[in-house]
Design a protein that fits this description.
With 381 residues, this protein is an alpha+beta fold. It has ten helices and 13 strands.
Length: 381
């Protein structure tokens, strides 16, 4: 129990009144003898022992009826339900991309599922064999897992791969329950039916004709967590000040036409197979390049491989440092130390450095590590 103690004022028994409550008797003519005055006495056993306890009990009952213990004693689960979501910002684009695969899902639902399944922890459960933040078993991963982030490895412990796999699985289940409801075989909300199918399987939902009783606990737990993540369903959530809904960054060139995605590839000039650290967007020579987000230019100069290159530091988003880079430019239109807004012109498309033709090589760097820029700038991935 906490060291702090609840204090209730106790009412002292009045000692200036006689215990009997009777005044001193005067001499009565009919009495042969005058009764002696009774001496005043202190509090009796009832007052000393019983009454303080009754006062304390009454005080505590009144205190609890008026609202109970203060905030430090709130139930942990309630506090968690009211807390603001603190999702790793690198997960947000993948949550949105995964949810965009079907109309039933929202990023908040996927995030709530992951919270319920693992609490965002990628520790392996040795007993169940579940791995990663989406708690996939090896058998489940063989069905749903892919190398979605182009890292060269498909793994349930890779958060991007896990989020996308969960989205595929949920969307498949959503499709099945939608068909069942259209055929009149089940009734209920599609999100509820999808989560129930995840928990117990589509056959159990079909047999029950609704959310089966055995899925109710899982469904209630997930839905209780959804409000924590509803901000992810709105444009600009997670600290974003980007462009189209479902993105965190403004398109650096327009239109966005990808000619070489993020991921492992053979370099067209060197022949070396390695990670392509960004996305190549096709654009004509001299096309305008703009800043993808508010920030400060930290590099603007010529390099041997990237040609004319600009790096913008966008600051910290939920504890993660975000930077974007713009390479192979024909002209630099921003200087180191310059503050920019999303959409501020910073350069022109070119083919400087190791390049086979005019294009923009665009990168997103999260805490010093390259990540796939596509879900950050392309709605729906």
């Amino acid at each position: 129990m906490n060291e702090e103690r609840l204090t209730v004022a106790e009412t002292a028994d009045g000692t200036d009144e006689q215990a009997t409550g009777l005044p001193d008797r005067q001499e009565q003519p009919e009495e042969p003898e005058q009764r002696p005055k009774r001496k005043r006495r202190g509090p009796g056993p009832f007052t000393l022992l019983v009454l303080p306890g009754l006062v304390t009990v009454t005080g505590v009952a009144t205190f609890l009826a008026l609202g109970g213990l203060p905030a430090p004693w709130q139930d942990d689960s309630e506090a968690k339900g009211k807390a603001a979501a603190d999702v790793d910002p690198s997960y947000i684009p993948w949550l949105r991309k995964a949810a965009s695969a079907c109309t039933v899902l929202e990023p908040s639902v996927l995030a709530a599922q992951i919270d319920q399944l693992s609490g965002w922890s990628d520790d392996t459960d040795d007993l169940s064999g579940q791995k990663g933040i989406a708690a996939f078993t090896d058998g489940e991963w063989r069905t749903w897992g892919k190398d979605d982030d182009g890292s060269g490895t498909s793994s349930p412990r890779d958060p991007a791969d896990a989020i996308m796999a969960l989205g595929r699985r949920d969307c498949s289940l959503a499709g099945k329950v939608t068909e069942l409801r259209t055929a009149g075989r089940v009734n209920g909300d599609l999100v509820d039916l999808t989560l129930a199918a995840y928990a117990t399987g589509p056959d159990a939902v079909t047999e029950a004709g609704r959310v089966p009783a055995e899925a109710r606990t899982y469904l209630d737990e997930v839905k209780a967590l959804v409000p924590r993540y509803e901000a992810l369903d709105r444009e600009g959530a997670g600290g974003g000040s980007g462009g189209a809904a479902g993105t965190l960054l403004t398109a650096p060139v327009s239109p966005l036409t990808i000619t070489s995605p993020y991921g492992s590839r053979e370099h067209p000039l060197t022949g070396v197979t390695k990670l392509h650290t960004g996305v190549d967007f096709a654009a004509p020579q001299g096309a305008q390049v703009v800043a993808a987000r508010k920030g400060r230019v930290v590099f603007a100069a010529a390099t041997s491989a990237y040609g004319n290159r600009i790096v913008i530091d966008h600051g910290t988003i939920q504890g993660k440092r975000v930077e974007t880079t713009y390479s192979h430019l024909s002209a630099l239109e921003a200087a180191v130390g310059q503050s920019v807004e999303a959409g501020t012109p910073i350069g022109r498309v070119g083919s400087t450095g190791l390049s086979t033709g005019p294009h923009l090589h665009f990168e997103v760097i999260l805490d010093g590590y390259y990540t796939d820029p596509r879900p950050w700038v392309v709605a729906g991935g």
